[in-house]
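User: Study the chain.
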Amino acid sequence: MSTLFSHFFQKINQITPLESDFTEVLDTIAVKPKMLYFYGKMPENVVLDGFDRRPKCVAIVGSRRCTKYGEEVAYRLAYELARMGVVVISGLAYGIDAAAHRGAVAAGGVTVAVLGTPINRVYPRGNLRLAEEILAKGGCIMSEYGVGAQVLHKVSFLERNRLISGLADVVVVAEAAVKSGALNTATHALEQGRDLLAVPGDITRPMSVGCNRLIRQGAMPYTCLDDVMSLLFPSAQKRQKRLLMGDTELETAILRAIDGGVRDGEEMVRALGVSVTEFNQAVTMLEIKGQIRALGMNQWSLN
């Protein structure tokens, strides 16, 4: 390995899946890895719903020879997820994988790259700088193959796909041709009971055939960030929908205005075209029901 990257690749860590809260989920998949080797550090637990839990994880995969559209979708999704503390998982390949890792890194988030090669052979070499950035941001480069392991690449890259999906709560196929390796990851996701989404594509483009077929076969279409967030945090989504529904049209309008970023009472009165009296009565009822709270100075927020 080039000495340019020696600082980040000095120490190879070795654990069994059950030795880390992050990787113990791999003990539930059909073919369990006996050992995991990695650079950097495993993602740490976070507080969710008042408890110390494993962080939410989304795998973003797709073709190496992707289009600009697929690359942009992968980058933007990874960026938004990483900003929210979601761990982004992919395979460090060119194309969609690299775009997903870059998006997470750009957001200052954590991303995990799962190799299909021995841990001391970061592949492809053209992504060594990206691997370095992943580690610099507190991420992880992982493989089930130790130093000097003899592997057949066509087999090992398919085998590692089960780890990418196995580590994830949700798998998103951003773009895939009819014979893309990402479809193999999708198959593992379904076998492992993971939620699977695919990005719809232009029916005239070969790089969209794989995703469109997945959707036809029952995968959920990915159209916006909420498609993923509703799967990761279903209780929060239900709570949000409940909070945004008032008992009157005016109450609902106020809730949606606040959710849209309008906090000032006077501004809401003007935007909604109601009297101050009507507005005050509505916000009083919403406050009594615990759906909003007063911030002072006629400013309001959702509870």
Observations:
- The first strand starts at residue 13 and ends at 15.
